[in-house]
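Support reply, case 0932

Customer input (verbatim):
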Amino acid sequence: AVNREDINRLEAGVSIGKNEIVHAKSRVMNHRRTIVEITIHEGKKHIVKRMMEAMGYKVSSLERVRFAGLSIRKIPKGGWRFLTKNEVNKIYEITGLVINK
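Our regenerated output:
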């Protein structure tokens, strides 16, 4: 089971090869099922799985709950919703795109 030492290691940085060290804000959500919430700022290919494997853990399930500030927590599986004007503006800001008016 993931323990406090593992959480500290995730936050301090985990080496995942090719001189790449990834830092992640982390916390254990459920000790019984070992559910860990990990927050990263750059989602390179399989980075969470690679981080956990580097620490000796196998990831059996992975769920992205937020991307670019957009949360999917209240959207049912397979569901969708329109973005708010503020969310669209934020995406333009993050990506550096210009809003056509």
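We compared this against your earlier run and they match. Two observations from our side: The longest strand covers residues 25-30. Residues 85-95 form the longest helix (11 residues). Please reopen the case if you see a mismatch on your end.
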